[in-house]
Design goal:
- By secondary structure, this protein is an alpha+beta fold.
- The protein has a domain of 58 residues.
- It is built from 3 helices and 4 strands, in the order αββαββα.
- The longest helix has 11 residues.
- The protein is flat, with a radius of gyration of 22 Å.
Length: 86
């Protein structure tokens, strides 16, 4: 018996993209439906490429990495040099 989920996902595909070669989808909604059918356990996201949509792996940095790289320094962001006039 054929896998119904993969058949539905295949019906949503429009063929390969001329720009990047990945499978094309008409809308974000179609890409998300196909993503849930083809990769139910993976964290995939829909993204736009020209007039069409693709699915790919979502990038979620770890909390520790986000804390290290994205926080602004305290005190307004400027380093104090001790030479400011009061």
């Amino acid at each position: 018996m054929p896998d119904v989920m993969n058949i539905r996902a295949a019906n949503l595909q429009l063929g390969p993209c001329a720009v990047c070669g990945k499978q094309r989808y008409k809308s974000r909604r179609a890409a998300r439906k196909a993503s849930k059918d083809l990769h139910p356990d993976a964290r995939m996201q829909a993204y736009q490429c020209g007039d069409y949509w693709h699915i790919g792996r979502a990038f979620f940095p770890s909390r520790a990495a986000a804390r290290r790289g994205s926080r602004a320094p305290r005190g307004g962001g400027a380093a104090r040099t001790g030479t400011e006039a009061s």
